[in-house]
Amino acid sequence: MMHVGDVTETLAAEVGLRSDEEIVRLRQIVRDHAIAQGFSLVDQTKFVTAASELARNTLQYGGGGDARLSKLTNGVRVGLRLRFVDRGPGIADIERALRDGFTSGGGLGLGLGGARRLCDEFEIQSEPGKGTVVSITKWKLR
Amino acid sequence: MERIPILRMGNCLIVAIQVDMHDRLAIALQDDLTERIVKDKAKGVLIDISALDVVDSFIGRMISNTAAMATVLDAETVVVGMQPSVAITLVELGLTLSGVSTALNVEKGMALLQQRRR
After folding, report:
1. Which domain holds residue B20?
2. Does Calcium appear among the keywords (chain A) (predicted)?
């Protein structure tokens, strides 16, 4: 368990991302926890979709990695946080990578920007040559 | 490798996606459908996604590409049964599936295909 400010974060699941099938597995695990946290159907779908986009990035651009799902509470609200970690080549220009339509891999370029729009909080840290950490958070609407 | 089954009814091909597809499976379906359009001389393709609770940009792109390829092969594509929560998420994601015809359910989708072919 971890306390940052008034937010308590509890690790709920850890999923390796090394194949297409593991992206599907992550979607199912995230869906189950989103249901357990009481998310609405639309919010479940948004968070699972964002998870799917970022998991594919981790696999395609990061050369595989891990996803860590945590349950959040600040005493009043509950939420979920999902953190993607890879040790791939990193992203040189994050602002550019976040722009819709930018892709270095032949995709649609909606992954990062799209995932950001589907969540409440979005953080990205990347260092060329060392890897990338992307974190998304969604709070349950009261 | 597992495959999504494609059914033929008259000159239409029908696909009901019932599983959470991984990316290779989605690509295999796209390839199978284009092959079957030619082999069966199909004029319409109906894709039922009512069982999908997530459509991300990859699956969205597969659907758009399939529709575009079908058009080039002189067939029409209709996507039916999209869940409302999936529709909301797709639009927010930035994917509008432009160029893809949609209908609320299989019955309306088949009617649409038949009416266009008359």
Report:
1. 7-106
2. no
